[in-house]
Amino acid sequence: MAAPSESSASPPARPPNEPGRSLKQLVLGRRDVQDLSDNEQELPSELMTVNMGPSHPAMHGTVRIVLTVDGERVVASDVQPGYLHRCFEKESEYATYTQVFPYTDRLNYVSPMINNVGWAMAVEKLMGLTGKIPRRAEYVRVIVSEMSRITDHLTCVGASAMELGAFTPFLYLLKCREWLYELLEKVSGARLTHSYVRIGGVSKDLTPGFDADLTLCLDQIAKVMVEVENLLNNNKIFRDRMAGIGALSKDDAIATGCVGPIARAAGVDYDVRKDYPYSIYPEVEFDVPVGTTGDCYDRYLVRVEELKQSIRILRQCLVQIPDGPVMVDDPRVALPAKQATYNTIESMIRHFKHIFDGIKVPAGEAYAFVEGGNGELGFYVVADGTGRPYKAYVRSPSFVHLSTASQLIHGHLIADIVPIFGMINMIGGECDK
Amino acid sequence: MSTDSVTLTIDGMSVTVPKGTNVLEAARTLGIDISAFCYHAGLPVVAQCRQCLVSVEKNPKLQPSCQQTCGDGMVVHTTDPQSTLARKQQLEFTLLNHPIDCPICDKAGECTLQRLYFAHDNEDSRVDVPKVHKAKVVDLGPTIVLDQERCILCSRCIRTCDVVAGQHQLEFAHRGDHEVLTTAPGEQLDNPYSLNTVDVCPVGALTAKDFRFTMRAWELEATPSVCNGCATGCNIEIHHKHGRAWRLVPRHNPDVNKYWMCDEGRLTYHPLREHRLAGATVDGLPAGWDRAIRAAADHLAPMLAGSRQAVGVVLSAEASNEDNFALGRLAKAWGVTSVHVAARPDVPGRADGRLRVADVNPNRRGVQLIAEALGLGARPVAELSPDVRCLVMLGAELPGVAPARVAELELIAITPFERAAAASAKIALPAAAWAEAAGTVTSAAGLVQRMHAAFPPPGQALPAWEAIVRLASICAPATASGADKLGFTHARDVFKDMTQTVPAWSALTWAREARPLALRFAGSRG
User: Which residue of chain A is at minimal alpha-carbon distance from B125?
Assistant: First the structure.
């Protein structure tokens, strides 16, 4: 009998005269399910390799995971970052210190202000300006940083909920984020890539009426957060998908260098703002939430609580912020006023030198770090006395966190990769530099 | 301690310098850059700008460090309040009437005044009276335009004309804040070294007509090279951007050109963009490299198989040692007896006992040495035998050969330019010009100096030695031994073979390739 054509998935053909074969099988060359033994009815147990990403809606930016799955379960994975590599560190060697700010915007692009502040602090440390930044500038930096932290957490929580099917919180939270972006756009001129901070202060003062705008915005966000928490916290689907998923122990969190919400969810009480206080953080009251289980649900709770603490910090800042300049009075770093630039040769030269040759940073090396949206964000700069960095390095939390991803998704279902990845909150720009 | 050196202390650091050194130079050996406008290491000291004042212990007044000779046991301070203040005040004084020209000034970005103000003063203006205005566009001569407002009266240009060109063509006129630079009575700034005044000018007062308003200085990149304008071999920097040269400036070499070069040499970058051959041609029509090489080989093969009387090879005194050596090797392998040298004729009026010499070929000496070492018996191309029908030539020109004779020759030209004899070549192979390929040239004094490739050659052009290697690889030499195939893969290979062949060059080594230096961050000028 001529063998009918077989699909590659069908079992190997047996000799036609073998007993126990049904008519259908004889005709079609495959067996009915009821003909299979119990053992045979189970899905084939051979491992399969599945490619997730780099272009995948849940792959936050572009990252590729080569998964080895046993059925739905992940038994091994190879996480491959780098698709968003833009040579941040190498590019910085060919830009003046001020020109690096736009590059830092594109590291963690959901909280660019914090990156700006981190870079400025590293260069200021080299120039001996740490602690000499005008108080108003420090307050402005903290205000925009905390606004950025809120946008960061809003994005993370909203996107993760959406990926689990909860679309309403996503729309609510992204609307809140938009209010903040609009405010930041008013202040800096750019909605997303602000490049607002400068070495020695910030580029311009807050807009008139900023505190009223921000207060209104924070009130609304606080209301929205109540609704979102009602929608999510005790939502059965959400809890089932988040609780117990992707747990990281405290020891592992420390061993792998995790920081920020991920480490805090695992019980590591470490927040740069508390442990290595910088700027005016010692002057404001806030609490650092710490989780217990280190799973995705704890990470979610920690982020929501941090968001509320940021609102608390912002409200205090709006009350405490003093009047005064927003740029240090140091001709080495401060651009002269436009009026003076156009009318005196001294200011003209200084302006020219700042823009074209760059701020002259004395030779040396420095590391400065801030609490970014995802944890300790550090910049290491080596200066050679010219207007551009000899070497720049960024300690990006996302890169470190991504290194735990393989461990976190191990043993979980493919579908669980989505909340785990969402709660790692890998930001491609920051991770791939 | 020897009697010809002195030891002094500057800012707490001890330094020993030869007797007669000034304090400013001694400080520079320690890495202390004392600000100065009028001082130039290649010019006489006048202590005119008062910018380099330092305090010397046991001396009640500040001393100009450029004029203060180092004494044994002298203790100098450059960062004490008194001299720091003096520098600041002097800069403020210099800027008093300086126009707000940086955005339109050609010197911006490589300006000494900008650099020193930013490093030593950086204070706001206190002036509340109008500035003194002077003439803005003063034509000083064929090459230079003066802006009297920008001039800070350092007199470097006056001394440059005096010392480098030996002609007193510039002078100060008037007094006080009305003092201006101008040409000396009955003179204009037309000496053959006039453009050096633009280099030494610490501000944008003197600008070269050739360079002004063409390119911003901070955008440029610098690659070290050697001037190909004559046999002196002045060391230069090619300042380039966007794949072309924008100016040539002298590079300090105490043994050759010190800090200077002549105006004619500075303009030799212009021909790099004129009449360039960008692709190989056969019978005047475009052809790819492979087809052109094949055509050349087919054309040469019957002649090389015979008596070889009909084939001549022309080396060029305008091409690098490497290019000439590769072609010399090939001529040797082919067994060609008729080897000639093309060299532009001397310009006797050019020699002035300074930098300019009569021989306008950058490499005549090198070709001579190579031809001697290879035993080629090279003669001037003017003495071309009437038997020769086909010439394999390096470069574009056949000086001394009558046009009628050129017309009847079948030329296989390896040339950067499509002009002169090369324009009528049967087969033309595009070659890189001097600024576009790594190589060496030999000055009249016998100094072998290295040129670096500043930017890529146009179109499909290759370094000439590479074209010769391609020709050798397909045009089987009569001797047919593998070694004659010229297995060079890099200019370094040619150089190595050359140093092993030419006895006078046996000790020479090939330096690393120089990477272009971005002037914006180098701080090397101004």
Answer: A346
